[in-house]
Amino acid sequence: MTGEFGFVEPDEADAPGDEWEDLDLDDIAQTEADKIARRQDDEFDEFRKRVKNTEQFKVEASVFDDATLAALYKLTRDGHIVAFGGPVSTGKEANVYEALGADEREVAAKVYRINTSNFRQMRDYLEGDPRFEGIGSDKKQVVVAWVRKEFSNLSRARAAGVRVPEPIAVQRNVLVMELVGHAEDRARRLAEVDVENPETAFEVVREYMRRLYSAGLIHGDLSEYNLIIHDGELVVIDLGQAVTVHHPNADDFLKRDCRNVASFFSRQGLDADADDLHGYVTTPEAEPSAEPDPATDPNPEDRDSDDE
């Protein structure tokens, strides 16, 4: 991995603490996608047959149940997905597919499995998050809440100036977001590349961790496996488990992130310490001190004499 790394510019950030945003979770059990699936109208039925006959989806019965197909159908009707490509990555909990979005933009469709997702692990991150109080123990509701949580976390991270995939739309257990790289030229995880400029890479990663923390979020699973490289950019991925700083286990998650990051960059030859990284992340960036204006300073001579 070569080249210098730069920072993305933050948007005008919300005040710290308003990570208690309303995610409108009341309709999780009765999403539009579920209503469509139950209605089974002719148009949706034709869509379902067409997708299930597509070559790359023939072995995906565990992923593309009728309710998931209905979510995809709703996303296509809303113009977020125009066509599907092949899989970018597959995992136990979710598959990511290349797709074509509005204005022929290449996007990623991340499809979470309802039946095989790690329900207990998801609950560990959702319980204690003030945005998801009273979510219940229904597995479908937990997975759908998780997907909305990832969309919300990506939105907040981008606003804070952290380079993450841009979230585009969410429907039930499907998240549409920016595709970083391509299926044939996928972005590489930091663990997969030869880091030739570890000092700069570490500077970017720790600054992104601090920006996340300042925005009220902690990644919760940050390591060289959740940082990817593409076109000279470091991109933070997999924010589904990110928690607010008010989560009861927030500091434990942050300390683990710091240990993972410090350990990786120590192996790259840097003097990276987890405790120092934790202090950097949790210390707000100092405001630059302004020089006194002689036109408004009532006692410039006194100030000069004090400096002496």
Verbal overview:
With 308 residues, the chain is an alpha+beta fold. The protein contains nine helices and ten strands. A five-stranded antiparallel beta sheet has the order 1-2-3-5-4, with helices on both faces. A three-stranded antiparallel beta sheet has the order 6-8-9, covered by helices on one side. Strands 7-10 form a two-stranded antiparallel sheet. β4 and β5 form a beta hairpin. α1 (32-39) packs across α3. The termini are far apart.
What is the H-and-E element order? HHHEEEHHEEEHEEEEHHH
- Average of pLDDT: 79
Number of helices: 9
Helical content band: 25-40%
Q: Which spans of ≥5 residues are poorly predicted at pLDDT below 50?
A: 12-20, 303-308
Largest sheet: 5 strands, antiparallel
Please count the beta strands (DSSP E, at least 2 residues each). 10
How would you describe the oligomerization state of the chains in this entry? Answer: single chain
| Overall body shape | globular
Main sheet: strand order: 1-2-3-5-4
Structural class: alpha+beta
Beta content: 5-15%
Give the termini distance in whole angstroms: 50 Å
Radius of gyration: 23 Å
Protein traits:
308 residues, alpha+beta, 5-stranded antiparallel beta sheet, 3-stranded antiparallel beta sheet, 9 helices, 15% strand, globular, disordered C terminus
SSE diagram, text form:
Blueprint: H1 32-39, H2 42-52, H3 66-77, E1 83-90, E2 94-100, E3 106-112, H4 119-126, H5 139-159, E4 167-171, E5 174-178, E6 188-189, H6 198-214, E7 217-218, E8 227-230, E9 233-236, E10 243-244, H7 250-267, H8 274-282, H9 300-307
Antiparallel strand pairs: 1-2, 2-3, 3-5, 4-5, 6-8, 7-10, 8-9
